[in-house]
Every structure is written in C-alpha cells, then in structure tokens.
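#structure-requests
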Amino acid sequence: MRRVILIVIVAAVVVVGGVMLFRKPKVSAGSKSWTTQSDSISGGRATVSRGKTAGRLKAKTKEERIAEKKRLRDEERKRKRELRRQERERRRMLKYARSRRGTRKSASRKGTYYVVKAIVSLGDDSYALIDNRRVRVGDVVMGRKIVEIGTDRIEVEAFGRRTTVRVGESLLPPSYFVQRRRS
C-alpha cells in the first residue's frame, strides 16, 4: 500500500513539473514595448507600450518625422562620402609608395643575385651563406663550384678559371646581368 501511494505522489510531481516546464510563458507588459525617437526634453528615445506614449511631451508631426529622416539620410551620405574620400587618399598614398619602392628596388637589385651574405668558419666544417642558402666546399651554385672557403672570401671555379668572391659581392660576374638601355 505504501508503495502505491509513493508511486502516485512521484507521478503527480512529474506531471506537474512537466506541465510547468512545457507550458508557453506568459507575455509580460514590458515585452510589448519598443522604443521610438521622440521630442522629449532629454532629446533621447521614448518607450511606447501598448499604444501609449511614455516619456515624451508631444507626438511628432508628419513633417517633423520627414525632416528628421532627411537630416539623418544627409548625415549618412556625408559620412559615407568622407569614408570614400579617405579610402581613395589611402590607396593613392599606397600606390605612390609602392611605385617609389619598386623603382628603387629594381635599380638596386641589379647584380645582386647569389650574393655571399656571410661566411661561418668552424675549422674544417666551414660554410658560406649565399642568398640564405648554406654551401660548403664542393657545392655547385649556378654552374660555379665552391673550391675554398676562407675567413672573409670564397674561391669559386667556373669554366676552368678561379675567382675570389668577398662577403657582400655577387657570385656571378657583372657581365652576367643584362644591361637595359633607357630610351
């Protein structure tokens, strides 16, 4: 008997809890309100609830609403025009900076391929950095064989002739680079 009463009580609690959980919530008066622009003393926004005005002295006339929309539209246009002008100016500055950089680079890049950046002397295990690439004695770069690595220079053999290249100089001879004629 006690078991049956306990089961009935638990079932009633589950039913009441389920009804309360799955029932639609009531819409409160606060959720039916929204905000509009108003002619209040503060000049801010007024709350309209169930068709009643709150916090404003008088309703706006049709002409006032039209004038307000026109003013806001004009302000938005001015703001967008100013943003476009600033963007154009920024792009123009970037273009000029890029073109100046480009001409400088092309002029200074002439004859700077395969430059000996550094020489690391570790006794027998020395190597040179040519354009951020490690080369040791016996390696071949652009058809030129590294014969010897000194403390401040490397000896390169190309076409049966040996040449010395110092740090900062190009591995390729100046005649390798094509001279452009300006017209």
